[in-house]
Amino acid sequence: MRKTLAPLIILCLVLFSCEHLDDFVGHSDDDNGEDTAENINFKYASTFLVGGEGAAEISAYDALTQRLFITNAETDVVSVLDVADINNAVFVADITLNGVGAPNSVSVSNGKLAVAVEAEIKQDPGYIKIYDTESLAFEGAFDVGPLPDMVTFSPDGNLLVVANEGEPNGDYTVDPEGYVSVIELETGMVYNLDFNAFNGEEEVLETQGFRVFGPGATLAMDVEPEYVAISDDSKTAWVTLQENNGVAVVNLETKTIEAIVPLGYKDYSVPGNEIDPSNEDGKFELRNVPVFGTYHPDAIAYYSVNGMDYVVTANEGDAREYEGEPGFIEEERIKDIVLDPTVFPDFEELQAEENLGRLKITTTKGDIDDDGDFDELYSFGARSFTIWSGSGQLVYDSGNDIAVKTLDLTPEAFNGGVEPDDRSDDKGAEPEAVTVKEINGKQILFVGLERNNQVMVYDVSNPSNPTFLQILSHNGDIGPEGVLVIGADESPNGKTLLVVSNEVSGTVSFYQN
Length: 513
Hints:
By secondary structure, the protein is mainly beta. It is 9% helix and 39% strand. The strands form 10 sheets. It has a 5-stranded antiparallel β-sheet with strand order 1-33-32-31-30.
């Protein structure tokens, strides 16, 4: 889901980001971590300014032409760069989309570029447009669902899988169904997989931590598919349902949605899950609080270890805010709600702004006995990344590690915003983008932090015990929206490259290992 910042905030962020924040490296105490740290050490190489806000969101690389394709929502085009020399990237052309809506996602395979394009009216069906990566010629289009937010080729290049978000209009009077489209490129068949079969399972799914809460919506209307990851064998896809706090598992052979996996909630009162819940307490302090976090995954990435499937989610958080008439706004600050005095006998202290008063929670959950006050508190996002098994069991959650590491190594960027600590009352660093790539025999995870303007690097070869490696950032880059790793075997300079697309600053930065 695209978000923007007001121009004044952007200016302040640019000024703030001018403090030096390049390449921080951390080492594990164990031998495995030290070996990995010696082999994985990304360094900043260069930056290309694509345009203004929204000009660089998601990127895809074509090894055949050594070109980078970037969704540019500032001018509703796909911007094309020649990156044969990453230190001197050259603008090639803008691919126009013939007056339809904005491009949301790009993917490349075998010399073909796929672009997910929303309709001018977002609630109408969108399109996947196909182009030749060398000539940039338009080769055809497929009709898909409303607001196609992410498109990706399967590893074997035979399929396109699309997450159609189906987001409501601003008045919340039109709420189309969200669904997953699977496109067979050889036959041209488009399979639109809806969620109607799960309408009867809503109650059970909700008890397990799935959310269905849009006004008058069925489960099939309420789900908003966001991001897609596909197994190496091209047989299974995992699709995040961000606002709903779940992941859909899709069988790409049978073209069916096999399961919805509710993700449940994270308990911030448990040691290791501490957060800083206030931007008005005058200090950077992580502490346990009587609040739950809702995972709300945005990006998702797949990898395999010893034949086992794993997916990693970036637990950004997302609230529904539709300010039209009648509209729908679910979030409130804790200071503005009524707490059950039996459950929270110290409610007056808790609701102070320096305590929990500033923290935003959903009003759609927490009044267990329906008496008008809140017995439980559920905030947005989990301020972490999580590794799940292929069937949806939690293998590892990073707990408070993002906050701990950024506070220790880059306190000037802690919980981002106009100033450090500015987003503590919202969703913290907002981990949004994730990708995993095998490098030097290790499975390496990259996590983009939208508000901190950073990318964190971990070795996740042991899914139950990841090792922190680095924090990467570059002055002037604001709002990392997409992270892309180009393997050494395909990169233009023979080195493994990390490409970071920064939505707010409109920049694309290159790092190399």
